[in-house]
Amino acid sequence: SAAKLQQLSVVEYEPGMDEQHMRRLRILQALPNAVTEQNLQLHYQPKIAAADGRVIGAEALLRWRDDGIGVVRPDEFIPLAEQTGEITPITAWVIQAALDQLQLWQEQGFDFVMAINLSAVNLQEPELVESIQQQLKRRHIDPSKVTFEVTESALMVEPELAIAKLAELRALGVKISIDDYGTGYSSLAQLKRLPVDELKIDRSFVQDLAISDIDLTIVASTLRLARDMGLTTVAEGVEDEQAWQLLRDKNCDVLQGFYFSRPLAAAQFDKWLKEYLRAHK
Ligand code: C2E
Ligand code: MG
Ligand code: MG
Ligand code: MG
């Protein structure tokens, strides 16, 4: 709550208070200004069709650079923003920025899909679906060109609510993806009920594919399961050519990872894209 934050913000350094704790407090103090001070930026990481190497779109990944704190990774500030409620204005900003960029790419003739990450908290916002619908309409964006990624663990917080909200979102025509699949604790019974289009295998299973037989077994069987359920399959964390080839051999649909590109600011992404298209003609 605001009162609680107020209390936190007057906490002074005490001997014994560790570095990490101090950083957490500074992040909590700076978070409410992240949107208004225009310190947020999206980076984009290409998603590649495994079969032919085509760029099918990008995932928008949030970056925050605070003047006092420096660069803060999303893994660090998003969980805090979820706790304080700051995730609501942050996500609203992410959605409009990502859709602006998608519109720009479309105007340049790229038939891309934009993937946007949502938190479990966002699924509890009453205006989320309507706001997304309006934003798509205003920009004349075909809803099927937008994917919302929600982590498997976020879906398990309040499954009934999440399922209902995702179904509502999906009815707009957007796609829904389960992110970081394999790290949560969803059962196959739950997976079967989720209104989703895409399953994104967590990078912890993908990174060492070339040297880990057990990871290869897990990935291969997950890909088979997802495909049999009619889902598009995505592997994140593809870092080398061997992983790329193994995933292609196992019929994974879409690949994402440092092997193709790190997440890049829009201008760098455009440069990368030009280069990639030239090399893959
Ligand atoms: P995610 O959605 O699973 O995104 C993939 C993460 O893996 C990104 O980290 C990306 O930079 C990283 N990655 C991509 N390819 C590779 C690779 O080949 N190797 C390795 N080691 N890492 C790779 P990032 O950008 O730090 O984001 C971390 C997480 O923060 C995201 O995981 C997502 O859960 C969350 N996040 C990022 N942006 C947003 C946002 O706008 N909203 C919400 N709610 N969450 C976000
Ligand atoms: Mg994601
Ligand atoms: Mg992921
Ligand atoms: Mg992740």
UniProtKB/TrEMBL annotation:
Record domain EAL: where: 24-277
Superkingdom of origin: Bacteria
The organism of origin for this protein: Pseudidiomarina taiwanensis
Protein's recorded name: GGDEF domain-containing protein
Residues of the full protein shown: 488 to 768 of 768
